[in-house]
Design a protein that fits this description.
This protein is mostly helical. The protein has one domain. About 75% of the residues lie in helices and about 0% in strands.
Length: about 325
């Protein structure tokens, strides 16, 4: 039957992709997990995290949680989550739902900067400018969300973290700790598989296309042109790599100019993979209002403001600080 064959094909391809992605992630995650464990055993976490204290205090987080964000900034969201779980496990003060949402959403806005910043650079945007936009947007979100939730006493209950999480592992042998960490890594693979399969189903049902169509007028409202709005929608719903791949092709074919590329990459950078990333953060204890709706509203506001400010800059400043005009090479 066609339906059964299609379902089996989706399951198998999702499993293959999940194993491939997990293999790449484990190469980064396992050394990070071991390093954090050693730092905890030697009681050095607080000293390593000390330089991050001022930034973390602005967003209402313990200083050591800056290490999780740093892991996400340099590697990826999954690395940040692994470090977050490791740090939370050894933290005697349980994090609130608001704090998990703050950290998780900051990681979603600003992560994988060497890789995704490199992708943006290949597309024609300035690397350092893209990094600055993403980091500053993440900090603005953290401060705004912290002010709203702390001032309104919202989401202050202890966060629920449903992934395998045993507070006693810090008191047991290294073998027991290693087995516990292995279970966590396996659970991450299961999450990746679930996310990949869910995205295939949503794409097959046309839900992703419907979301893109519904949001297209908003793109025009904030100043992103019709040629770039469709690509922006792809990046918002499916991810940075999908959107940037199309951008590279369109630039080669002369469909997009450097200004449209800059606006698209800047918005996709701070607001992409809305469905997949939101579901991922909900699984580790965040709440949807901040992770999705406040994040989306703030990113739209920042993008609209940025478009209007950039249009008033002199041409030489745009080409020096924001984008390059040379053609993309293979």
């Amino acid at each position: 039957m066609p339906f059964v064959r299609s379902a089996v094909s989706a399951l198998l391809s999702s499993a293959r992709d999940a194993l491939r992605v997990s293999r790449e992630l484990y190469a980064i995650m396992i050394p990070v997990v071991i390093l954090v464990k050693v730092l905890q055993e030697l009681d050095l976490i607080r000293y390593v995290a000390l330089p991050l204290r001022p930034l973390m205090s602005l967003v209402g987080l313990p200083a050591e949680m800056g290490l999780a964000w740093a892991a996400a900034l340099l590697n990826n969201v999954y690395s940040g989550i692994i470090v977050f779980l490791q740090l939370a496990q050894g933290n005697p003060n349980h994090l609130t739902t608001a704090q998990v949402t703050t950290l998780g959403t900051m990681m979603l806005i600003a992560h994988s900067l060497p890789i995704e910043g490199g992708i943006a650079r290949k597309c024609g945007a300035r690397f350092l400018t893209q990094v600055a936009i993403r980091v500053s947007t993440a900090l603005v979100f953290g401060m705004v969300y912290h002010a709203v939730t702390a001032g309104g006493d919202l989401f202050q209950q202890t966060a629920s973290i449903p992934l395998p999480f045993d507070d006693t592992t810090t008191q047991t042998s290294w073998i027991a700790w290693g087995m516990g960490e292995a279970k966590k890594l396996i659970s991450i693979t299961a999450v990746i598989f679930s996310m990949l399969l869910a995205m295939k189903v949503l794409r097959r049902l046309g839900i992703l296309q419907a979301i893109s169509t519904a949001l297209e007028p908003i793109m025009r409202l904030i100043g992103i042109g019709p040629k770039a709005s469709t690509i922006t929608m792809i990046g918002m719903t499916l991810g940075m790599s999908y959107g940037s791949g199309i951008i590279i092709q369109d630039v080669r074919e002369g469909e997009l100019g450097p200004e449209d590329v800059f606006y698209t990459l800047s918005f996709m950078g701070i607001c992409h993979s809305l469905i997949e990333d939101t579901l991922l953060m909900l699984l580790v204890g965040a709440e949807i209002m901040g992770t999705l709706w406040i994040r989306l509203a703030l990113c739209l506001l920042i993008a609209a403001t940025m478009v209007r400010l950039v249009r008033h800059l002199p041409p030489h400043m745009k080409t020096r600080f924001l984008w390059v005009t040379r053609a993309i090479t293979a």
